[in-house]
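To close the chapter, one final illustration. This time we ask the reader to focus less on the individual chains and more on the assembly as a whole: which components sit near each other, and how the overall shape emerges from the parts.
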Amino acid sequence: QAQLQESGPGLVKPSGTLSLTCAVSGDSISSSNWWSWVRLPPGKGLEWIGEIYHSGSTNYNPSLKSRVTTSVDKSKNQFSLKLTSVTAADTAVYYCARRPGYGSSPIESWGQGTLVTVSS
Amino acid sequence: DIQMTQSPSSLSASVGDRVTITCRASQGINYFLAWYQQKPGKAPNLLIYAASTLESGVPSRFSGSGSGTDFTLTISSLQPEDVATYYCQKYNSAPHTFGGGTRVEIK
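The assembled structure is written out below.
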C-alpha cells in the first residue's frame, strides 16, 4: 500500500507562492497513477486542485489553473505543487493523493494532510 | 464543467436510523462516482466507487446507488462512529469535482 507524506512551509505571505512536496513510498512515481492534490479550507468542503502523470500530463481545476503548477521528480520519487499569488482564501489543509491510472478510477490513497496558512 | 450538488448539507439522526444522502451531477457521468467519509483531522477515506461498489473493509451498512446524474449514499443503521462529513466526487473526466459535503451527526 502506497504511503504519501506532504511537506512544506506552514505559513506563506499574501501574494507569495505556496510550495508543497509529496514523498511517495511503497510505489513508484513512474507507475500507472495520477498524482493528485486536494485541499480543505477551514469550514468548507473538499476542493480538487489537480493531478499529474509521470509523463508530465496534467489536469487542473479551471478556477485555479492560472496559478497552479505541478511537477514530478522521479529521482526522489516525489511530486510537487506550486500555487502562486496566494491570498487568505488559499488557507487550507492540503492533501496529496494517488488515483490509479487504469480506466477511470477514484482517489484511493491519501497523505495525512498539511495545514498551510496565508498570512502576513 | 460538471457541477456536483449534495443534499442535505447536514443532518442529525439517531443511532440505528437509516440515513440517505443524495448527489446530483449537472450532466451525466455514467457510474463514475465515488463517496468518501472524512472525520475531523483525518484524510478522506474511500467508501464506495463506481456508484455502488463497496471498497474493501468498509462496513456493509454503507451502500450506494444511481447512475447518470442522480446518486445516493445510504447508511442502513447509523452508528456513533459514522459521525463524519461525506463527499461525493465525479471521476469520469477532469475536473474531478467534489460535492459540497454532508455533515452527519448523532441526535
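Strands of chain B lie at 4-7, 10-13, 19-25, 33-38, 45-49, 53-54, 62-67, 70-75, 84-90, 102-106. The interface with chain A takes residues 1, 32, 34, 36, 38, 42-46, 49, 55, 85, 87, 89, 91-101 of chain B (CB under 8 Å). With these observations in hand, you are ready for the problems at the end of the chapter.
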